[in-house]
Automatic annotation (TrEMBL):
PANTHER family registered for this protein in UniProt: N-ALPHA-ACETYLTRANSFERASE 20
Domain N-acetyltransferase: 2-154
GO cellular-component term (any): NatB complex
The protein's name in its UniProt record: N-acetyltransferase domain-containing protein
Length: 175
């Protein structure tokens, strides 16, 4: 049985089993605290039996300058412990973030960055309704490309937010 609840600061001292995956970005304590302080409604933890962390999602809402239709939810991190994969936890965590983006902040879309080489994650996001908006050359440490994937929310009636860009971009081109 898994329980979903808001991410708490103390969780940072208990989630090594989740973060030890080589494809999971591990951030500084101050980074996690910034998210918990500014966007707590976008941060959730999945707990397994005996309160063991099984996964989490960190996100935020933001826009590009004064462009109202750029208001979106952003998935900063979603990860599930190796022993808890293929149970639907990532889907549940993503659903929470998408719900918050749509209902609390009235966003137009949700976006995320994923390693272009991480076929398992790219396929999972596609199944969740995300599409590749653009490729970002050298996004990960200047060495590995990322896909910027997006999912339109109901407020984006014409789905303009997900029309793919024809050419790759560089991290310096990102808004």
């Amino acid at each position: 049985m898994t329980t979903l609840r808001p991410f708490e600061a103390a969780d940072m001292f208990r989630f090594n089993n989740v973060n030890l995956d080589p494809l999971t970005e591990t951030y500084t304590v101050s980074f996690y605290l910034q998210y918990l302080g500014r966007w707590p409604e976008y941060c959730h933890m999945a707990l397994g039996p005996h309160g063991r962390p099984m996964g989490y999602v960190l996100g935020k809402s933001e826009s590009f300058g004064n462009q109202p239709e750029s208001w979106h939810g952003h998935v900063t991190a979603v990860t599930v412990a190796p022993e808890a994969r293929r149970l639907g936890l990532a889907t549940q965590l993503m659903d929470l973030l998408e719900y918050t983006s749509e209902h609390a902040d009235r966003c137009y879309f949700v976006d995320l960055f994923v390693r272009a080489s991480n076929k398992v994650a790219v396929d999972m996001y596609r199944k969740l309704g995300y599409s590749i908006y653009r490729q970002v050359i050298g996004y990960y440490s200047g060495e590995e490309d990322a896909f910027d994937m997006r999912k339109a929310l109901p407020r984006d009636v014409h789905r303009r937010s997900i029309v793919p860009l024809p050419e790759p971009v560089y991290p310096s081109d990102l808004d």
